[in-house]
Design goal:
Elements (H helix, E strand, L loop, with lengths): L1 H4 L4 H18 L5 E4 L5 H11 L4 H4 L31 H14 L6 E6 L6 H13 L4 E7 L2 E2 L2 E2 H4 L5 H7 L3 E6 L3 H7 L3 H4 L5 E6 L14 H4 L4 H7 L9
Parallel strand pairs: 1-2, 2-3, 3-7, 6-7
Antiparallel strand pairs: 4-5
Helix pairs in contact: 2-3, 5-6
């Protein structure tokens, strides 16, 4: 999708691909909600929704083109599995907290999963939501932080140091756990772990990831946040049919 329209934000999608896949295919239950707060990774979300069967591959083929619903950032209420417009960073966890409150008032145990970037941890609105959710003990709210340590204009620790994110969440009344964000087995097993199933607090999952995971020479660089991939880089990542005996 990115190569077809010569668009950037490839690195942001690749760091979150396993997270979105596991949430949708392994953790998701009827009634659950998934909010991609880091909406610039929309292509990864569209891919997962297509594999899951919520949308079609032909829909994804219109990504970022004139007249499409499948914009560079998710639109609200137009695509199955996408309830809110996201990408103006710092809003996703507030939206998720609102849904968690509604579920708690309705005695509904459905879970709200919010996938955030570590860069949007700079946003004050994010920490308002963290405070609010911790105070109200939203046990049905899960914030998953894509901790790739790179944001639009630099490394997170150089822009605004985040330090020990897990400790910060705990101080605000959350449970928190770290996990390797590209390890599908570790992510899947987390769902049945004690910290994920037996609690009375919201849960923060800090996923240690790599920006542009698998993205040739641009992996783990600031450049892979915005730069589109060249044809050469694309061919390295996605060999044509028949290459290497495949």
């Amino acid at each position: 999708m990115y190569r077809n329209v010569n668009a950037g934000h490839v690195g942001c999608s690749l760091s979150a691909a396993e997270i979105l896949t596991v949430v949708k295919f392994s953790w998701f239950q009827p009634g659950d909600e998934l909010i991609l707060s880091k909406g610039h990774a929309a292509a990864a979300l569209y891919s997962v929704l297509a594999e899951y069967g919520d949308i079609h591959d032909t829909d994804c083929a219109t990504f970022y083109q004139e007249g499409t619903l499948y914009a560079a950032h998710p639109p609200p209420g137009k695509i199955p599995g996408i309830r809110f417009a996201t990408g103006s960073l710092g809003h996703g966890l507030s939206l998720g907290s609102g849904l968690a409150l509604a579920n708690k008032l309705d005695d509904d145990n459905a879970r709200i999963y919010v996938v955030c970037s570590d860069g949007e941890m700079n946003e004050g609105s994010t920490w308002e939501a963290v405070l609010f959710a911790g105070h109200h003990k939203f046990a049905n709210l899960v914030c998953i932080v894509d901790r790739n340590q790179i944001q639009g204009f630099g490394r997170t620790e150089d822009v605004i140091s985040l330090g020990d994110l897990g400790a910060k969440f705990r101080q605000f009344g959350w449970d928190a756990v770290e996990v390797p964000g590209h390890d599908v087995d570790a992510l899947s097993e987390l769902y049945t772990s004690e910290i994920c199933r037996s609690r009375n607090k919201p849960l923060a999952i800090i996923c240690n990831t790599i920006k542009g995971y698998g993205y040739c020479e641009l992996e783990n660089t600031v450049a892979c946040h915005y730069l589109p991939m060249t044809e050469e880089q694309y061919s390295k990542m996605v060999p044509p049919p028949g290459a290497n005996g495949v």
